[in-house]
Amino acid sequence: MKKRNIWKNVKFPLQLIREKRGKIVDVFYKENINHIAIINSKKGVRRGDHYHKKTTQHILITKGVLEYWHKPLNSKKPAKYELLKEGDLVSTPPFEVHALNIIEDNQFIVFSEGKRGGKDYESDTYRVKPSIIRNSKNKQSSAKNKN
Asked: Is the dihedral of CA 68, 74, 78, 80 positive or negative?
């Protein structure tokens, strides 16, 4: 899992252009994106609890906040989470179990490298049980809620 804020952590070859009309930021450059989806979620729902064998997913938060839970597929350790806010981009590699805990109404865009859209939506998706999202009382943020 890699996390960055598209407005704050702009590293070469990506660029942030500031001008009198506003700002333009590169999200990707020379990436092999096969599918893009916009997802609106309501507070209190969970998404995910799955992994992909071949697909890499990138999630860009455009509105609201969510908890992104993650762990390597065969890890015995409990999952960790990152608090994602507007502008945060998280990348999920193959064989990483991931789940989203929606803590307020939000919107995010998912960019997929590999099968994930249309008739292929579930073809590289492997569900896991039980959920990797733990009870709120026991959460340990790998980001320590600073982001």
From this structure: negative
Question: What's the one-letter identity of residue 124?
Answer: D
Residue 22 lies in domain:
2-138
**The model's pTM:** 0.84
Query: Count of CB atoms within 10 A of residue 117's CB?
Result: 13
What is the full DSSP assignment across 116-139?
-SGGGTTTT-EE-SS-SPPPGGG-
Assess if residue 143 is contained within a domain.
no
- CATH for 17: 2.60.120.10
Mean pLDDT over each residue of the chain, to the nearest integer: 89
Residues 6+ apart with CB under 8 A from 95: 51, 52, 53, 72, 73
